[in-house]
Design a protein that fits this description.
This protein is an alpha/beta fold. The chain has helices spanning 2-8, 12-16, 38-47, 86-91, 113-116, 123-134, 136-144, 153-156, 168-178, 247-257, 286-299, and strands at residues 72-76, 98-101, 147-149, 194-198, 205-209, 220-221, 233-234, 263-268, 304-308, 315-319, 327-331, 359-366, 371-378, 383-390.
């Protein structure tokens, strides 16, 4: 990977030396020492790209006030900006307090230009976000719902990429600029993770958006390509390097889980609980997956529910024994990139059959009945799968 990366960004030294403080790439930086590495050169160059040259979504609806009670939250992932998205349009007809768009919000690496043609300026990714901004169905949901966002590989810039993606600093700038996060707390640290809380004590919902890309160590390739359960990756061997979130994000997550909340929606762009398949998931790093469960337990964090995407199939999971209470997960995927009508995949934790047609999810909270429901909806807005969960089953008094 190091050789490949060096070849990809050899021109970055020239780029970096030709950027002035106002973003004009004409004169060299005569008052700064030359960058010592290609990565340093790239990042210097990226920092000086004017925000006006990066795509930006419309302003959107402000997030709910900190004391606002949330009762319905929509969840969706995997949206191809180059084609119409009737399911996103149908989602826009719903009523909800918040919409979580949780990864592969665009497909900005479709033709591989960042790698194949050595384009460190990520022109394809920028174009993809501009195309999304122009989509009427996206404009409709942007104008209707407060939104929180996470990224996954295709809006990060390269399929299945992790920390070794050489252009990740610019990918982060594109993401944060597009979604209006650059001037918020998340814009002040590496990576795109952030959290928000809503509602008074007794009705407080915490939404934690994880970044499973920027810091993630390489995955272990399969030893039997395409085999069931080993499709692309296998679990990392015991004792090998395994890092999903990076040291700073792990510390941040520990602090977040210690904050007061009744319901905690932990968003991971890739699946957390299942282990039956060989695609990207926390199961590819068993030690990190166990670390996540242990952290929830050790912090005493009640009410954790995982929300995930990525799979181009919807799932609902439930398992006892990995947390102090029942662990639950909703996978909502995809909005307009369904690859099948049905699936035989069956994980021991799975509630009901997989749902491959186009879909989106909803988290419904009935504060009076003390009940939370994880719902998968089809492209017409009809309920396809549901799991009703008593507050007491997830450690909420």
């Amino acid at each position: 990977m190091a050789v490949r990366t060096a070849g990809l960004i050899a021109g970055a030294l020239v780029l970096a030396s030709c950027v002035t403080e106002d973003g004009n790439r004409a004169l060299p930086r005569i008052f700064e020492p030359a960058p010592e590495t290609a990565v340093e050169a790239l990042n210097r160059y990226y920092a000086d790209i004017p925000a006006s040259e990066l795509p930006r979504a419309s302003e959107g609806v402000p997030l709910p006030e900190s004391d606002a009670v949330l009762s319905r939250i929509l969840v969706a992932s995997c949206n191809d900006e180059e084609q119409e998205s009737p399911t996103l349009a149908r989602l826009g007809e719903e009523e909800a307090d918040l919409f979580l768009m949780i990864g592969d919000n665009v497909y900005g690496d479709r033709d591989g230009r960042a790698y194949a043609n050595n384009q460190p300026e990520l022109s394809e990714l920028r174009e993809s976000f501009s195309d999304l901004a122009a989509r009427p169905e996206f404009q409709a949901v942007r104008e209707k719902f407060p939104m929180m966002v996470a990224w996954d590989d295709h809006d990060y810039g390269a399929n299945d990429a992790g920390r070794g993606f050489p252009f990740k600093e610019l990918a982060e700038r594109i993401h944060e600029n597009f979604w209006g996060l650059a001037d918020q707390d998340v814009g002040q640290w590496p990576g795109t993770y952030y959290a928000r809380s809503f509602g008074p004590e007794g009705q407080r919902v915490q939404v934690i958006m994880l970044d499973t890309r920027f810091f993630r160590s390489p995955l272990t390739p399969t030893d039997e390509y395409g085999a069931e359960g080993k499709e692309r990756y296998i679990p990392a061997p015991e004792g090998s390097e395994q890092d999903m979130l990076g040291a700073e994000q792990w510390t941040w997550l520990e602090n977040q889980l210690q904050k007061p909340a009744d319901i905690r929606l932990v968003v991971s762009s890739i699946q957390v609980m299942p282990t039956a398949h060989g695609w990207e998931a926390w199961a590819t790093m068993p030690a990190e997956r166990e670390r996540l469960f242990d952290l929830v337990s050790s912090t005493g964090a009640n009410g954790v529910v995982f929300l995930t995407g990525d799979r181009h199939t919807g799932f609902i999971y439930e398992e006892r024994g990995v947390l102090p209470y029942a662990a639950n997960e909703l996978t909502a995927s995809s909005l307009n990139l369904s690859f099948a009508d049905k699936s035989d995949e069956r994980d021991p934790r799975q509630i009901g059959a997989a749902f491959p047609p186009e879909n989106y999810g909803a988290v419904e909270i009935d504060w009076e009945a003390r009940m939370l429901s994880l719902v998968l909806k089809d492209g017409k807005g009809q309920t396809a799968r549901r799991n009703n969960i008593a507050f007491s089953d997830i450690g909420v008094d």
